[in-house]
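Re: Re: ligand-bound prediction request (bumping)

Still looking for help on this. To restate: I need the protein modeled with magnesium ion bound, output as structure tokens. Inputs repeated here so nobody has to scroll up.
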Amino acid sequence: MALPPTLKKGTDSWKIKPNLYDYQTVSKNFSWKSVKSALAGLPKGKGINIAYEAVDRHANADLAHHTAIRWISKKGETQDITYQELKAQTNRFANVLQQLKIKKGEAVFSMMGRIPELYFTALGTLKNTSIFCPLFSAFGPEPILQRMGKGKATVLVTTTKLYQRKINNILEQLPSLRYVLLTDAEKDLNEKVLSLSALMEEASHDFEIPPTDPNDPALLHFTSGTTGMPKGAVHIHNAVLTHYMTGKYVLDFQEGDIFWCTADPGWVTGTSYGIISPLLHGVTNIVAEAEFDAIQWFEILQREKINIWYTAPTAIRRLMRLEIKPKDVFDLSALRLIHSVGEPLNPEAILWAQDALGMPIHDNWWQTETGGIMISNFPSVEIRPGSMGLPLPGIEVVILKNNKEEWQEIDTPDTVGELALKVGWPSMFVAYLEEEERYKKCFYGDWYLTGDLAKVDQDGYYWFVGRSKDIIKTSGHMVGPFEVESALMEHEAVAEAAVIGIPDEVAGEIVKAFVSLNKNYIWDEKLRLELIGFCRKKLGAAVAPKVIDCIANLPKTKSGKIMRRLLKARELGLPEGDTSTLEK
Ligand code: ATP
Ligand code: MG
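Reply:
Sorry for the wait, this slipped through. Here it is.
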């Protein structure tokens, strides 16, 4: 089931010729050295700093007056921040940190919604060579405490309201925390809790970025907690090479583009692609403060004339529930490319988009640990719905099989095994905070083991099968939840599906599905049997779910990933484990 490429190579149908015009040739000739030469490096050979490349490089040149960030408030008001203004504001923030004696390598945490101060904090922290760690503003005190404790936070930037609701009572439990900076307080509350706006006003807008080694830690991101306790992954300044390369080849940034990444910087996509990558390419980055609203999202796409849109399957599945065909109601003519990440993208969603949006969605795969996109569909390459696509230039991907404690490469196509990456790409995580052993266990020789199972077809397309922890072993078959969920999604009644294995004396495990329904469908015995029959026809009796339940809302992480482990724990009456990232 292959879709035609979005744009046909060498024909007039290109709106703009993509940067990755010829995948094979670019991959063959690729070198990280050439990516580096597209960046500036700090003046006088003082190393490489993410924020310098993203902001100052443009502010000091032709893009000084170009809009770097267009912020859309919850009320719908907009504020444009040029590259020059962004340079000044991030310099101010870096000077604030200097004044407070926050040093290189110390951690600055943020906890706020998507407001301009978040972006000043992120980039200003990088300028100061401190480590930036964003937290979701929806976290409760316990997950905040856990993460700030583990990350040895020295500064937290937040709002007065969040401070009063969540931080005030836990301050004493955070001995390393020296300052809380409140974005909206007019005056300092005490010696430790200060007004950021007052400090910013006094701070100079000039700042010289100190020497930054490519290996200096820059970012700390906690994983989504989909499979267990979130891990703290550390990334270095050299990651900027991946951010740049993937922005060029995957998101296809071109001069004058307007880009929207819907992810919150509370998880890695919202930082790598919601802040860094678009700015590296000097495009205009749309930041929408409001949470998901289907109609408002299409209004933003239309009004802001967005060219490239990066979102997630969870949002796409919600858009699919709309009764309108968006392209008939909204003017989406500026839109050139849609990308998705975070979970497997069901083929059904790609076909829906082709019809309802006028173009397919490009799925791509990566993890917090990889720091940037590793496998992707590209505008110039045929899409195979359900496949994650092809490895990025410079990224070596293999499927490994475990044989008596040894990992071996599988060279037969379409064979399921562990998805692994050859170590050495610039944005590879350099540590799991306080979990050295766990970090070491992720590697075997030259390979980083991702914890995901996948297969590769004979043309080099990678197909996600499931997380190794979620794989179901039933009567001698290995069943990946994605395959079963995608089959269920093809049924018109099903809005979302999650599949788990439950222990069974005879079969080992049996496949159980949970579904939520589209509007106008009612859950009853007839529909249950119909869905079982539907899956049997598509997947065969061995793989099709034996049991199906309906629940209104599947449990998800705040970044929108279905938490199968929670469904399983609830099903089996076991402890739920860490639920800090559960969307409430
Ligand atoms: P934790 O590691 O704490 O359990 P997590 O793995 O969900 O959480 P992230 O790093 O945010 O945390 O997510 C990366 C994972 O998301 C990948 O390992 C993969 O399982 C899944 N994923 C991301 N993109 C895709 C995709 N395009 N197709 C399939 N799965 C994807
Ligand atoms: Mg993970």
